[in-house]
Amino acid sequence: MSMIMQRRRTPSEIVGLSPMREFEDIYDRLGRLMNAAMGELTFQDGERIPWIPMADVSETEDAYLIEIDMPGVAKEHIDVQLSDRELIVSGEVKERERDRLHRRMRRTGRFEFRTMMPGEVNAERVSAQLADGVLTLTVPKAEVAKPRHIEVAT
């Protein structure tokens, strides 16, 4: 049975809101569901395909907020990159050595989360905090992307 892979979006594909965005989100969610239900895929050379951590992306007037579940991941094992408007969070969950393992339900190995920011961002002011197993990224909007109040004259 084949697995559905998450579709990677390039900056040239997303310039503004697209009517296909809803379908792309459904496709990404279906891929996550299939990976969760059937486990991880491996290539013929034995290399595992990175899994995708669960995340929420929200927006305030000044910034985009991304919260990614990272239970048990040390900050040294997380890499955050912002290229144009594409945010990439990757890393690895190391497997602990155990004498006897009766059940394994937590994911280990390489992970990768990718998302496109809906608007222009200020890459110099991005901040990241890891607390209680959740990585919180604050990506400030660029001044041109912030809403501007225009007063109506009579």
Structural account:
The chain has 154 residues and is mostly beta strands. The protein has 1 helix and 7 strands. The chain has a 4-stranded antiparallel sheet, with no helix packed on it. The chain is elongated.
- What oligomeric state is this? single chain
CATH T-level topology of one domain? Immunoglobulin-like
Query: Would you state the CATH class of one domain?
Result: Mainly Beta
N to C succession of SSEs: HEEEEEEE
CATH architecture identity of one domain: Sandwich
What structural category characterises the helix and strand content? mainly beta
| Main sheet: strand order | 1-2-7-6
| Main pleated-sheet profile | 4 strands, antiparallel
End-to-end separation in angstroms reads: 66 Å
The poorly predicted ranges are none
Shape, principal axes of CA atoms: elongated
Mean pLDDT: 80
| Proportion of beta-strand residues | 25-35%
Q: Percent helix among the residues? A: 10-25%
Report the radius of gyration as a whole number of Å.
18 Å
Tally of helical segments: 1
Based on DSSP secondary structure assignment, what is the total number of beta strands?
A: 7
Ordered list of secondary-structure elements with their pairings:
Layout: H1 21-38, E1 55-59, E2 63-69, E3 78-83, E4 86-93, E5 109-116, E6 127-131, E7 134-140
Antiparallel strand pairs: 1-2, 2-7, 3-4, 4-5, 6-7
Short description:
The protein has 154 residues and is mostly beta strands. It has one helix at 21-38; strands at 55-59, 63-69, 78-83, 86-93, 109-116, 127-131, 134-140. The chain has a domain at 49-96 and 103-144: Immunoglobulin-like.
